[in-house]
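A favour, since you know our structure tokens better than I do. Go ahead and set the record down below.
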Amino acid sequence: MATLTKRAPYQFQATIRRKGYPTQSHTFETKRDGEAWARATEAVMDSGRFVSTKEADTATLHEALARYDHEVGSRKGSHKSESRRIKAWPAPPAC
């Protein structure tokens, strides 16, 4: 069951906590949108097709390219040229 919390005048946060799944939360402008998202996400969990996108949502382009280079590019014949192109991308600025 999802929990909807009012955070601001036009801001609602929907949170889903289910055993065996990571906690999912998202913020919406309307309560109706939050309820719809929660129903859809719970339906996917019920059907067993749920895949968490948390890692993809928080990854930077630099991290994604480095992972691609390591996991996929290393098995390709064009690895050297692809690796060179990936390394040409500037690194993210230090925080």
